[in-house]
Design brief:
The structure holds two protein chains of two kinds. Chain A has one domain. Chain A is built from 13 helices and 23 strands. Chain A has helices at 2-12, 35-44, 49-63, 103-111, 118-123, 141-146, 154-160, 162-168, 179-187, 428-436, 441-452, 454-457, 462-476; strands spanning 26-28, 87-89, 125-131, 134-138, 150-153, 192-196, 205-211, 222-227, 232-240, 247-250, 253-258, 263-270, 282-293, 299-306, 311-314, 317-320, 326-335, 340-349, 355-364, 369-378, 386-395, 401-410, 416-425. In chain A, strands 5, 6, 8, 10, 11, 13, 15, 16, 18, 20 and 22 form an eleven-stranded mixed sheet that branches. Chain A is globular, with a radius of gyration of 22 Å. Helix content of chain B is 42%, strand content 28%. Chain B has one domain: 3-Layer(aba) Sandwich (Rossmann fold), CATH 3.40.50. In chain B, a hairpin with a 2-residue loop joins strand 1 and strand 2 (14-24). Chain B is of the alpha/beta class. In chain B, helix 6 runs parallel beside helix 7 (178-191). Chain B has helices spanning 40-48, 72-78, 95-109, 117-130, 135-139, 148-162, 178-191, 206-210, 230-239, 242-253, and strands at residues 2-11, 14-24, 29-33, 54-62, 65-66, 80-83, 90-94, 141-142, 166-170, 197-201, 215-220, 223-228. The chains are: A alpha/beta, B alpha/beta. At the A-B interface, helix 10 and helix 11 of A face helix 2, strand 7 and helix 3 of B. The structure holds adenosine-5'-diphosphate and magnesium ion. Adenosine-5'-diphosphate binds at residues 11-12, 14, 16, 34, 36-42 of chain B. Chain B: Keywords: ATP-binding, Nucleotide-binding. Chain B: InterPro entries: AAA+_ATPase (IPR003593), ABC_transporter-like_ATP-bd (IPR003439), FeS-cluster_ATPase_SufC (IPR010230), P-loop_NTPase (IPR027417). Chain B: Belongs to the ABC transporter superfamily. Ycf16 family. Chain B: Residues 2-246 form the ABC transporter domain.
Chain lengths: 481, 254
């Protein structure tokens, strides 16, 4: 036993790999939150009047709202007046190409293993990199624009495609949807925008990497993806943050619009700083993600691998409005040490013959708490709606917790809704079996956990799947002893 | 190769092994027989390093090393292989993937370079023939939904892949029909050499017609109470265990 404890000690004290931060001159808003700050941000970003009005309206509504407390997480109240709502690297002008980007910034992304130049180009992934509040580089623009695909930072979209932004911004997640979404609507600084025109299959993965660098800064990015009729796109999101003693807030909004016969795959590998092994520091990840299958035969598929953050509050959802539309949610959420995750999905069946599928794999270790919260709602006119939900929990050790909160609300008798749930412990027997074949305990755990999460990992694009597998193993190192 | 001296082991305070002595040399096949609950699986588990069992007395050396001092994975890498009586299932992990991890970790320990995908598959193909195992079975999740016979066959296949010096087969014959028994035994026999040794745990004589032992030991109440040659197994087959039990139990009450 003492041998195991020392291994456990050694490995759980392993530091978060992306925990460094870089000092560079930043252009910052004063600390605090009020209408003046919002005007400051909007001016800074040279926004049109309508967007400022939109922000202010969101802010005024937000003032009347209260922080949600129904999630199965506990954390000290965040002092939203103590945060800074805008921080940009001094070089504010968005670079037209990578040669113009501050080498310091490129270096940050290189350190994250995200090469913004040649390498990614060869791999055929277009990247939009967001540092703190602004987008610093978007790659691969030319190739995409030949196909009529727009992939750029949110701020650029506001300037160059105002009609699209105006039409879709807030159309899936209304500005007043919830406390954090309203806050985001008021203060969001940047994010990614993507439009796939009718009939176009995007030939490469589109990807955004988010990183919080500056201290005491909230990150409130906004992503908007619009897939026009018969189009297809696969979109990837990755994120990291420096290790800091204080908690940092991340409250993003992602909106997806899929027109008829369009398909959008949205994959996330979330690796925000989870706090140290004693639960100090870490990101509060309060995110609203929602897609609407607006047209018939459209499809939206969410895949997420959640390994980071101190507290996660996140429910990527699908509104299945078009007839025959399909919503999918594949999730692996891992919590270790003192992490808390309350995550799941909502599938709202409105159209006829709509289908949804939920596969959630929770893994809890250490003293962490992991909750699945899912809602399946079938509206009156949604004839023949189908849902299948599979919610599995895997426990490592006996100091962690796994919880499942399925809500089912059916208003049409032709609906078929199936829910399966299992809870298992990672078996001593399984580990011993691996040991007996010469496999070390750490590798045995990685093998077993990746096997358990396979159905979800299989949904990820190749390069991401490998990264995710490594991340799972890394997050759980030392959690069995 | 293996030397067990006065081995005592207990679980949750109950002493299960009460002074086992056994010498196994390279090239030998030892059969361990005995009624249910006599401690056969416990002995196998203790040798493999299962942590639930506490060794309270005695020593075990394997190729000159103190076996009890090694972590379970290092025992395996040194060449101890246990074919489990009840192999576990690992959902989502294919036998192929599992074995590739195992083989390469064992090779690394032995100072050999790791096998790339092509070399590994070639090795697999070759060993698959030994136990007539199907490729399809190996791409499925490890042991998940395998029949009893398939599980046992897969154990011997793994043994073939890992090339151990000491193999312990714990009731590998139970649950096998006569054809499967023949195939599995065939595999084991082909893997036998002058350099490795096998301990066959069983309580049926039947298996020993296929895997012929050099020595037969009877385990009862945590001790080896009788040792002999193949003839002992035949005698047990004929008379059952009762005469041995009587002998031991009456000796104990005197
Ligand atoms: N976890 C345990 N706690 C208490 N007794 C156990 C435990 N596991 C096994 N035993 C006991 O140890 C004895 C030997 O078991 P085992 O080695 O499996 O026997 P065999 O393989 O010879 O049938 C049995 O009496 C069994 O009940
Ligand atoms: Mg047994």
């Amino acid at each position: 036993m003492s041998k195991d404890n020392s291994i456990l000690e050694e490995l759980t004290s392993k530091e978060y790999e992306h925990g460094w931060s870089v000092n560079f001159e930043a252009d910052e808003a004063p600390i605090g939150l009020n209408e003046d700050i919002i005007r400051w941000i909007s001016t800074k970003k040279e926004e049109p009047q309508w967007l400022l009005e939109w922000r202010l309206k969101a802010f005024r509504t937000w003032l009347t709202m209260t922080e949600p407390e129904w999630a199965n997480v506990t954390y000290p109240k965040i002092d939203l007046q103590a945060l800074r709502y805008y921080s940009a690297p001094k070089q504010v002008k968005k670079a037209k190409n990578l040669d113009e980007v501050d080498p310091e910034l490129i270096a940050i992304y290189e350190r994250l293993g995200i090469s913004l130049n040649e390498q990614k180009r060869l791999q055929g992934i277009a990247v939009d990199a967001v540092l703190d509040s602004v987008s610093v580089a978007t790659t691969f623009r030319g190739t995409l624009s030949k196909l009529g695909i727009i992939f750029c930072s949110f701020s650029e979209a506001v300037k160059e495609h105002p009609e699209l932004v105006k039409k879709y911004l807030g159309s899936v997640v209304p500005m007043t949807d919830n406390y954090y979404a309203a806050l985001n609507s008021a203060v969001f600084s940047d994010g990614s925008f993507c439009y796939i025109p009718k009939g176009v299959r995007c030939p490469m993965e589109l990807s955004t990497y988010f990183r919080i660098n500056a201290a005491n800064t909230g990150q409130f990015e906004r992503t908007l993806i619009v897939a026009d009729e018969e189009s297809y796109v696969s979109y990837l999101e990755g994120c990291t943050a420096p290790s800091r003693d204080e908690n940092q807030l991340h409250a993003a909004v992602v909106e997806i619009h899929a027109a008829s016969h369009a398909e959008v795959k949205y994959s996330t590998v979330q690796n925000w700083f989870p706090g140290d092994k004693d639960g100090k520091g870490g990101i509060y990840n309060f995110v609203t993600k929602r897609g609407i299958c607006a047209g018939d035969y459209s499809k939206i598929s969410w895949t997420q691998v959640e390994t980071g953050s101190a507290v996660t509050w996140k429910y990527p959802s699908c509104i299945l409005k078009g007839d025959h539309s399909i919503g999918e949610f594949y999730s692996v959420a891992v919590t270790n040490n003192y992490q808390q995750a309350d995550t799941g999905t909502k599938m709202i069946h409105i159209g006829k013959n709509t289908k949804s599928r939920i596969v959630s794999k929770g893994i809890s270790a250490g003293k962490s708490q992991n909750s699945y919260r899912g809602q399946v709602q079938v509206m009156k006119r949604a004839d023949n709606a189908r849902n299948f939900s599979q919610c599995d929990s895997l426990l490592m050790g006996d100091r962690c917790g796994a919880h499942t909160f399925p809500y089912i609300d059916i208003n049409n008798s032709s609906a078929k809704v199936e829910h399966e749930a299992t809870t298992s412990k990672i078996g001593e027997d399984q580990i011993f079996y691996c040991n007996q074949r010469g496999i070390a305990t750490e590798d045995a755990v990685a093998l077993i956990v990746n096997g358990y999460a396979k159905e979800v990992l299989n949904q990820l694009p190749m390069e991401f799947a490998v990264e995710a597998q490594k991340l799972l193993a890394l997050t759980l190192e030392g959690s069995v002893g | 190769m293996l030397s067990i001296k006065n081995l005592h082991a207990s679980i949750e305070g109950n002493e299960i092994l009460r002074g086992i002595n056994l010498e196994v040399k390279a090239g030998e096949v030892h059969a361990i027989m005995g009624p249910n609950g006599s401690g056969k699986s416990t002995l196998a588990s203790v040798l493999a390093g299962r942590e639930e069992y506490e060794v309270t007395e005695g020593e075990v050396t394997f190729k000159g090393k103190d076996l009890l001092d090694l972590a379970p994975e290092d025992r395996a890498r040194e060449g101890v292989f246990l074919a489990f009586q009840y192999p576990v299932e690992i959902p989502g992990v294919s036998s192929t993937n599992f074995l590739r991890t195992a083989v390469n970790q064992v090779r690394e320990y032995r100072g050999l370079e790791s096998l790339d995908a092509v070399k590994f598959l070639t090795l697999m193909k070759e060993k698959m023939k030994l136990v007539e195992i199907d490729q399809k079975l190996l791409s499925r999740s490890l042991n998940e939904g395998f029949s009893g016979g398939e599980k046992k066959r897969n154990e011997i296949f793994q043994m073939a892949m890992l090339e151990p010096t000491l193999s312990i087969l714990d009731e590998t014959d139970s649950g096998l029909d006569i054809d499967a028994l023949r195939i599995v035994s065939n595999g084991v026999n082909q893997l036998k050499s002058g350099k490795n040794a096998t301990i066959v745990v069983t309580h049926y004589q039947r298996l020993l017609d296929y895997i012929v032992p050099d020595f037969v030991h009877v385990l009862y109440k945590g001790r080896i109470v009788k040792s002999g040659t193949k003839e002992l197994a035949l005698e047990l087959e004929e008379k059952g265990y009762d005469w041995i039990k009587d002998e031991i139990d009456s000796a104990a009450t005197v």
